[in-house]
Design a protein that fits this description.
- This protein is of the alpha/beta class.
- The chain has two domains: 169 residues, Rossmann fold (3-Layer(aba) Sandwich); 165 residues, Dimethylsulfoxide Reductase, domain 2, CATH 3.40.228.10.
- The protein is 37% helix and 18% strand.
- The protein has a nine-stranded mixed β-sheet.
- Helix 4 crosses helix 14.
- The mean pLDDT is 95.
- The protein binds iron/sulfur cluster (SF4).
- The site of iron/sulfur cluster has 13 residues, from helix 1.
- Iron/sulfur cluster binds next to helix 1.
């Protein structure tokens, strides 16, 4: 009997080899997925919920209320979408254009700058399949996939036998972790863990560049030059190297200039690629869809056919400066995740939330629509962390509407 494989939308890896045992609307067993994926897929859902002022209403009332909030707003914010399909994201961009909204996702305060460098070809990148088949030197910098993307090392970056890497991790690959703490990934890297002090990344980059060009590597925190030179010797020998960039590195740098300089220096001596460790399953999709439409990956404001871009149009800055007067949030919980001093401003404006989960933001939303979990209860497409398009179908039936359906209905009601 032919096996049915599903895609897990639990993280940016979008594993496409998942087998499940399911009935009409319930998943009984999940095979192949990691624990995060199993929990994500087996997340229990109650009846469909439409709330206005925390009181149950029918779908039409919730949609009309949402449309009326957006119609009356002078500068609405549309935010989230990292766990929505490409199709929903494209609709949200259309909606933002229609209502002259500010539009942003979580990438403006995480890996957006790295994705921006990749989509603008400022740095060489590759796919996870390339990594599995050819990767010989793999660097995890400020990233800990053993926790954040649990199948990363086993499926793609370290343990598997690839087409040109048949001897796998034992002989064919070197995994290196550069981090401020001994993460689970760093433990797997063993002697190739380079622990640096908090905020010490830019100096470590300069030291590596010095080492690569035969100079004595120095840091103000006296990292042993001999250890840095051992590392640069490994890097120089890479036939297919990859730097998996995580938030730890991005938050430590003022901007990406040092990292781009390092990638250039690495490629003068060897062959290196950069892949952002995108967490949300379709953050990269949002960045690419918005880039295709506007030339920017996040933080835009539409104004009568003109696109403005800048940090002032990021979620954090626009909420902090109170420049937005309503918010449509899709698949995000800013009241829990943003600093309280900023998030509290959301309490002063009407919030519409589309989310499969009940959260602090849903409790405080003017309109809350309990949407389907995409990849589990609704299908579509998404862009994997390495830019590969992945199509997926729903596993179970649901009464919950998808983000796409709700956005379409709001557009029609405007
Ligand atoms: S690694 Fe990510 S995509 Fe793969 S099964 Fe785990 S949560 Fe799902």
């Amino acid at each position: 009997m032919e096996k049915n494989y599903y895609v897990c939308t639990g993280c940016g890896l979008l594993c496409d080899d998942i087998e499940v045992e399911s009935e009409k609307d319930i998943i009984n067993k999940v095979y192949t997925a990691c624990r995060v994926g199993v929990a994500h897929m087996k997340e229990g859902k109650e009846e469909a919920t439409f709330l206005v002022d925390n009181k149950p209403v029918d779908e039409a009332k919730a949609i009309n209320e949402a449309a009326s909030i957006l119609k009356n707003a002078k500068n609405p914010l549309i935010f989230g979408l990292g766990t929505s399909t490409n199709e929903a994201q494209k609709l949200a961009i259309e909606l933002a254009k229609k209502i002259n909204a500010t539009l942003d996702d979580t990438s403006s305060y995480c890996l957006g700058s790295v994705v921006e460098a990749v989509v603008n070809n400022k740095v060489k990148t590759c796919t996870l399949d390339d990594v599995r088949n050819k990767g010989d030197v793999v660097i995890f910098w400020g990233s800990d996939p053993a926790d954040s993307h649990p199948r990363h090392l086993s499926k793609h970056s370290y343990f598997p036998r690839g087409k040109e890497k048949q001897r796998g991790w034992e002989e064919d690959r070197t995994a290196i972790a550069i981090d401020i703490r001994k993460s689970h990934t760093a433990k797997i890297c063993g002697n190739y863990f380079f622990q640096i002090p908090q905020g010490g990344d830019a100096e470590f980059i300069d030291a590596l560049i010095a080492g690569l060009s035969g100079k004595l590597p120095k840091t103000s925190y006296n990292y042993p030059p001999k250890k840095i030179l051992e590392l640069t010797n490994i890097l120089k020998g890479a036939k297919f190297g990859i730097v998996f960039v995580g938030l730890g590195l991005v938050y430590s740098l003022e901007n990406l200039e040092p990292l781009l300089r390092l990638m250039k220096a690495l490629n003068e001596k060897a062959n290196f690629h950069l892949v952002p460790m995108v967490g949300h399953y379709n953050m990269r999709g949002f960045n690419e869809n918005l880039f295709a439409e506007t030339g920017y990956v996040n933080s835009v404001k539409f104004e009568n056919g003109i696109v403005k871009h800048g940090p002032e149009f990021s979620t954090v800055e626009s909420i902090k400066a109170k420049t937005v007067d309503a918010a449509l949030i899709i698949g995000s919980d800013p009241l829990s995740s943003l600093p309280r001093s900023i998030a509290k401003n959301l309490l002063g404006i009407p919030v519409i939330l589309l989310d499969p989960c009940k959260t602090l933001t849903s409790k405080n939303a003017k309109v809350y629509i309990n949407t389907a979990i995409s990849g589990v209860e609704s299908g579509g497409s998404a862009t994997r962390m390495d830019g590969i398009l992945v199509n997926f179908k729903p596993i179970v039936e649901t009464k919950h509407p998808s983000d796409e359906t709700v956005l379409m209905k709001i557009m029609e009601a405007l």
